[in-house]
């Protein structure tokens, strides 16, 4: 498979790519033999950058519409209030919402000594997100041949994730939360980038449709060797009927860590933060 790196973000002031890597089509024949070395070097940079992060947790569900980003942001805020140092990587590259949920200040990303400084919320949560690089309403687009975009876009997105992990100066963190998009592709890429599967916090809503989608995601995580931290039952007490969280907990011998109502009080997040 050809490997393509992120080279530009639309609507952003032009700058070198995070990792200084070029697309396959920008390489000469002599350069192409060095692609494996470039990837290996980038993975090493990820390992070095995350060496001071005590714990990495992927927040996932396998489907959209369950409030996963909402849970991620509010858990991060609760962790920060409890005195822990926390970061959030918004891995939903095409639908990033974390900056707004964290009420991040609108400020350009700062570069220093070959790294990118994350934006920090008023509560102390450090964050990186594609939303910080795109103009409001602008879709994510990569530089490359449009006729072959279906071939290389996935590789470009994987490279963006790798660069967010390896080129952002996270500093010392007690926990880094990774807000994953719907589906399982980003989780699989994450396992490959990190070398070891991350711990997983699963979010569901009560419905049987959510249960079926989340079950597939949890099965994939177990098969990859991830530690299942538990399940968050979200949007409880409204019109969404079912017992998805309890059924998944029984099937996977996992805990239901929290039941979050439609309009949760801040203490709901504080209780969830205490068990992470």
Summarize the structure.
The protein is of the alpha/beta class and 276 residues long. The chain is built from nine helices and ten strands.
Helix-strand blueprint:
Elements: H1 29-32, H2 35-49, E1 56-60, H3 68-81, E2 86-90, H4 98-101, E3 110-112, E4 115-117, E5 119-120, E6 126-129, H5 149-167, E7 175-179, H6 185-194, E8 199-204, H7 208-224, E9 228-236, H8 244-252, E10 256-261, H9 266-274
Parallel strand pairs: 1-7, 1-8, 2-6, 2-7, 8-9, 9-10
Antiparallel strand pairs: 3-4, 5-6
The helix content is 25-40%
Radius of gyration: 19 Å
Largest sheet geometry: 8 strands, mixed
Q: Going across the major beta sheet, what is the strand order? A: 5-6-2-7-1-8-9-10
Task: Estimate the strand proportion.
Answer: 15-25%
Supply the helix-strand structural class.
Answer: alpha/beta
- Strand segment tally: 10
* General shape: globular
Write down the overall mean pLDDT.
Answer: 83
List its salient traits.
276 residues, alpha/beta, globular, disordered N terminus
Can you tell me about this structure?
- This protein is α/β, with parallel strands linked by helices and 276 residues long.
- It has 9 helices and 10 strands.
- The strands form 2 sheets. It has an 8-stranded mixed beta sheet, sandwiched between helices. A two-stranded antiparallel sheet has the order 3-4.
- β9 (228-236), α8 and β10 form a beta-alpha-beta unit.
- α2 (35-49) runs parallel beside α5, α3 packs across α9 and α7 runs parallel beside α8 (244-252).
- The radius of gyration is 19 Å and the shape is globular.
- It starts with 28 loop residues before the first helix and ends with a helix.
- Mean pLDDT is 83; it is low at 1-27.
């Amino acid at each position: 498979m050809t490997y393509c790196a992120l080279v530009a973000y639309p609507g952003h002031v032009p700058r070198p790519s995070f990792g200084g890597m070029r697309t396959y089509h920008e390489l000469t024949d002599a350069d192409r033999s060095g692609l494996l070395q470039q990837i290996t070097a980038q993975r090493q940079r990820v390992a070095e950058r995350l060496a001071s992060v005590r714990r990495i947790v992927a927040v996932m569900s396998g489907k959209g519409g369950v409030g996963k980003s909402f849970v991620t942001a509010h858990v991060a805020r609760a962790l920060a209030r409890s005195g822990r140092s926390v970061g959030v990587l918004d891995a939903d590259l095409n639908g990033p919402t974390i900056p707004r949920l964290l009420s991040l200040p609108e400020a350009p990303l700062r570069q220093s000594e070959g790294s990118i400084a994350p934006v920090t919320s008023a509560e102390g949560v450090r964050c990186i997100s594609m939303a910080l690089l795109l103009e409001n309403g602008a879709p994510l687009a990569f530089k490359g041949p449009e006729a072959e975009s279906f071939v290389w876009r996935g590789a470009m997105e994987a490279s963006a994730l790798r660069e967010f992990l390896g080129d952002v100066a996270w500093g010392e963190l007690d926990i880094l939360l990774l807000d994953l998009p719907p589906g399982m592709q980003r989780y699989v890429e994450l396992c490959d980038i990190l070398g070891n599967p991350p711990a997983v916090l699963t979010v569901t809503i009560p419905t049987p449709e959510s249960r079926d989608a989340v079950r597939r995601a949890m099965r994939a995580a177990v098969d990859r060797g991830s530690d299942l931290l538990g399940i968050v039952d979200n949007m409880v007490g409204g019109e969404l009927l079912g017992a998805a969280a309890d059924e998944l907990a029984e099937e996977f011998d996992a805990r239901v860590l929290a039941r979050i109502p439609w309009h949760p009080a801040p203490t709901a997040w504080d209780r969830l933060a205490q068990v992470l």
